[in-house]
Amino acid sequence: MRSQKLIPAAQCPISSPKINEALAKLNRMVKDRRWPRFVTSLEVFTDETQVQWNVQEATQPVAKHFFEWLAADVPGTVPGALEYEVNGDVFSIAGNSFFQVNRSLVGCLADLAIGNETGGTAWDLYAGAGLFSVPLARKFGKVTAVESGRAADDLQRNTRRAGVEVDGIRQNSEAFLIEASVAPDFVLADPPRADWGRLPLAVAGTGTPQDCDCGVRPGDAGTGSGRLKERYEIERLAMVDLFPQTFHIETIVAFGARD
After folding, report:
1. Residue 213 has pLDDT above 60, yes or no
2. Within 13 A of 108's CA, how many CA atoms are on the CB side?
3. SS3 state of residue 225
4. CA angle, 243 as apex, 18 and 148 as ends, to 5°?
5. pTM of the shown model
6. How many other C-beta atoms lie within 10 A of the C-beta of residue 157?
7. What's the Cα-to-Cα distance from 54 to each of 41, 68, 94, 118, 128, rounded to whole Å?
8. Strands 39-46 and 51-58, how do they pair?
9. For a designed S-S bond to 97, which of 20, 67, 151, 202 qualifies (C-beta 3.0 to 4.6 A apart)?
10. Which segments within 50-175 are labelled E, that is strand?
11. What are the backbone dihedrals phi and psi of residue 254, each rounded to the nearest 5 degrees, phi first?
């Protein structure tokens, strides 16, 4: 604790069995002379059957035979997207697209974030692969999903697969808010922690009407809620232990406009 010393991990007690299996194989592979020393960070995802690899840090391009080697040593390795079922919908997640790591609670997270809200229009900011956009589209007449990252392609594919209509916009959510001229009935935002501090100011810039509900799920509710106090008040708050046995807690905060 509090050091910068790297400790080799044989397994992680709170991780998935398939990731622990991959970790054991990697611990052997990195000692092999074939391991490319220029690869310094490797990410692994799994649905407990298939395994997806993403090179996060490397000083030069990684050859195709490296992934073939991974596939030979780690059963289930696939070159494309993984699929996850959430509340009856199947979400396709390509490499480097964001998706919640806790598969057991992700459905509960979506239910809590949306709650009983219904209406004419809704925005899903930082929409990712469509975890919230899909159920929102079944409760609102028109849903606009804003995503600027690689997950925008997954978003389009997943909403089409679910048979729902969503207006996908490939744009930075903060820029979208600044340019918006007409406010929706409901806003749901799931920003990265780094972006949450700037989001409330951008929300205020939309001129949201007083009868608008704002459903916001920040990584740190304390930081954002203070900036929204002038126009909104907290109506509902829930905490989800998405990262068990760590100090991280996922917080869901529902804001309603002040009278």
Report:
1. no
2. 11
3. helix
4. 90
5. 0.83
6. 17
7. 9, 13, 10, 38, 17
8. antiparallel
9. 151
10. 51-58, 82-86, 89-93, 119-125, 140-146, 167-169
11. -105, 120
